[in-house]
Specification:
By secondary structure, the chain is an alpha+beta fold. 52% of the residues lie in helices and 13% in strands. The protein starts with a strand and ends in a 14-residue tail after the last strand.
Length: 166
């Protein structure tokens, strides 16, 4: 269920007009945030991909290592002993799992969040409203001239300050 409504504006005066309408309607400063081209929100996209790579690498290494010891008839692929084959399978599994983890985490990342981040970086202004009266906020954003006003799932990190207009 969406917990935030965002409105995308072409210019600063349009976003300021939306902020005034929201304030007049009783939305407080803790419910409204503005992302401008200079202070755009930075998602944790890179951290999500890195987490996918790490998880995939660990899982792939474990699967490769276990498969080496459990598959009957596995003969050492590398001249030497079973340990070399075990390590080879673990590395191959880690590489495969890391790639799979990276691709899956990129696919699972929020496309809408990436879209809005790119729009702000290209010069647009994003007004976000969180709280219980999201339908009213969406209508106010549309009335203020938002190019787009849509609900999104954007949980706010309580330890991170909300961006200010700049």
């Amino acid at each position: 269920m969406p917990d935030t409504v965002v409105g995308l504006f072409r210019s600063r005066p349009e976003s300021d007009a939306a902020l005034r309408k929201l304030k007049e309607a009783g939305f407080g400063p803790d419910e409204v945030a503005v992302s401008t081209p200079h202070t755009g929100r930075r998602g944790h996209y890179g951290l999500k991909v890195l987490g996918g790579i790490v998880a995939g690498t660990v899982l792939g290494a474990l699967v490769g290592a276990i498969a080496t010891g459990m598959v009957p008839g596995v003969h050492p692929l590398v001249p030497g002993n079973l340990l070399a084959t075990f390590l080879f399978a673990a590395v191959a599994g880690a590489a495969t799992g890391g790639l799979a983890g990276a691709l899956l985490s990129m696919a699972a990342s929020g496309d809408r969040a990436l879209f809005y981040e790119q729009e702000v970086e290209s010069g647009r202004f994003l007004v976000s409203v969180s709280g219980p009266r999201l339908e009213e906020a969406q209508e106010l954003l549309r009335a203020a001239g938002a190019m787009e006003a849509a609900p999104v799932e954007a949980p706010l990190d309580s330890g991170r300050p909300r961006p200010e207009s700049g």
